[in-house]
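Lecture notes, part 5. Sequence design as translation. It can be helpful to think of inverse folding as translation between two languages: the language of shapes and the language of residues. The source text, in structure tokens, appears below.
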């Protein structure tokens, strides 16, 4: 259940808080209710974020040696930083992703997406098939991020490979051989980041100028390159796939009775790319009547919280603008709430607006397939053809 939680049908009998053991015998407390998930996220004194990036499959010595060989370190910077340095680091990152800077990228992104959609339409018109993940969703978020934040001069493909390797290494059930291969991939890119962190401008330069040590600059870039683009690529793929099965929504977008922003929010609620997120209990406490000893790993089932009948009228139906649609927790909550939410929303809005007319007449040849993972969906492809 833990590694394919999105495949679980919404079962009213699921307890609010359930103890579930993982593949290596570690017990987690899975929290399903919107109110309880929110309670945990907004109470950092009781539930710390320290375990947010812990490997769910303990990394064996062989793979640790590979990481050490690359001088890999990931000190607490953003998502896993419950310490005093977090607000200052977060403020610098938030500045780089300020809504006015995000809005300024919109015309450029719209032009690029239009160009891509024209090419895709031509292929479909000629009877061909198109992988909307590869042709549209995979690289757009990284291209936008690179315009907002100076990034190492690495090819798009190399960044995507590194980011997906990191999501697998830290959040997937794995064997030792695979861990070693992933450690080599993640470690070698870490080296690229380290060099860039020492000299790069933009965000890296601002963090250095504020006195943050090199490890922190690397940690922030590492997290941004993973969280700041893979998540949105995954979301775009899942949302476009969902929309091909929602003809009424597509018709509403076409005749203007359904708003693009409402579609994006309902997409985030029903198809979040991050299905769970972790915290660790800092003290002995109780949650929803369940005793929680200090040190317990808490798995917050964000995707399920978005379908809580207590907060939304029709939990399993894609109804843009319905009551409760925007109350999802896809971006978390509290002091670690996603700092890239406006960027992700802008990107999704542009892609939905430009792609919806195309989706109207397609048939799905290949649905996105998602590997086992505690947290990320990681769809691999989404192939369509004209009906
Ligand atoms: C649909 C896309 C995205 C989703 C669903 C998403 C979701 C999340 C979630 C669940 C968290 C943890 C929140 C918490 O602990 O309360 C988070 C944190 C974060 N996200 Fe996102 N995210 C997305 C896109 C982005 C983008 C585009 C960026 C930046 C370019 C970004 C940057 C961050 C950062 C820096 C944090 C850590 C914030 C902190 O600890 O202070 N995310 N995100």
């Amino acid at each position: 259940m833990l590694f394919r939680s999105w495949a679980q049908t919404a079962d009213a009998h699921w307890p609010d808080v359930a103890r579930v053991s993982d593949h290596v015998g570690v017990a987690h407390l899975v929290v399903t209710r919107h109110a309880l998930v929110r309670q945990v996220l907004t109470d950092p004194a009781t539930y710390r974020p320290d375990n947010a990036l812990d490997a769910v499959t303990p990394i064996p010595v062989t793979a640790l040696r590979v990481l050490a060989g690359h001088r890999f370190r990931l000190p607490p910077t953003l998502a896993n930083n419950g310490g005093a340095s977090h607000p200052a680091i977060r403020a610098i990152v938030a500045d780089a992703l300020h809504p006015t800077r995000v809005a300024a990228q919109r015309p450029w992104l719209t032009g690029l997406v239009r160009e891509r959609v024209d090419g895709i339409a031509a292929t479909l018109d000629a009877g061909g098939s198109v992988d909307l993940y590869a042709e549209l969703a995979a690289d757009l978020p990284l291209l936008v991020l690179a315009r907002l934040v100076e990034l190492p001069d690495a090819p798009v493909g190399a960044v995507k490979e590194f980011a997906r390797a990191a999501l697998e290494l830290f959040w997937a059930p794995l064997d030792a051989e695979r861990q070693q291969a992933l450690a080599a991939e993640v470690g070698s890119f870490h080296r690229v980041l380290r060099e860039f962190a020492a000299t790069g401008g933009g965000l890296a330069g601002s963090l250095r100028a504020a006195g943050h040590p090199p490890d922190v600059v690397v940690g922030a870039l590492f997290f941004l390159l993973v969280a700041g683009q893979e998540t949105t690529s995954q979301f775009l793929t899942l949302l476009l796939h969902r929309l091909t099965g929602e003809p009424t929504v597509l018709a509403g977008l076409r005749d203007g009775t359904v708003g693009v922003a409402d579609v994006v929010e309902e997409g985030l609620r029903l198809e979040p790319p991050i299905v769970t997120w972790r915290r660790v209990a800092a003290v002995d406490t109780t949650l929803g009547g369940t005793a929680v000893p200090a040190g317990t790993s808490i798995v917050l089932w964000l995707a399920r919280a978005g379908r809580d009948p207590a907060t939304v009228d029709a939990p399993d139906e894609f109804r843009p603008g319905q009551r409760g649609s925007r109350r999802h927790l896809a971006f978390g909550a509290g002091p670690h709430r996603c700092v890239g939410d406006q960027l992700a929303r802008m990107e999704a809005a542009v892609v939905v607006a430009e792609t919806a007319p195309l989706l109207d007449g397609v048939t799905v040849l290949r649905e996105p397939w998602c590997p086992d993972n505690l947290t990320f969906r990681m769809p691999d492809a989404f192939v369509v053809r004209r009906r």
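The translated text above is only one of many valid answers, since several sequences can fold into similar shapes. Strands lie at 17-21, 27-31, 47-48, 129-131, 277-281, 285-287, 290-292, 297-300, 362-366, 383-386.
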